[in-house]
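quick one before i forget lol
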Amino acid sequence: MDNHAVYREELLEHYRHPQNFGRMKKADQQAHISNPLCGDEITLQLKFDRSGQVAEVKFEGRGCALSIAAASVFTEFLKDRSKKQLQNIPNGKIEKLLDIKVSPARKKCVQLPYAALRKIFLKQ
């Protein structure tokens, strides 16, 4: 099996069985964002511990395989990170985590969870 086939299978696994999918009862911060061009939407929720690190992260939403897989992978990455670390995550991090290059048309799908995180910090 080549690397592309392994990647496709891992991406599909995150789409079929996303990590951290669901709704938190009491989130400290949350943001909803959608892509009106394709209809994808994500709500990202964060709960912080006393030291300001991510204790729990959840997302809900609907969309294409790329947006759901991106949210799954990104939420795993966010766990145990401090607020300062969250604020310093560079644009393009999700593509690196997924180890993919996406077309400009699909970039917004992959960037939805990142955009939701940015929206959380704009509210503060």
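fyi The beta strands are 29-34, 41-48, 54-62.
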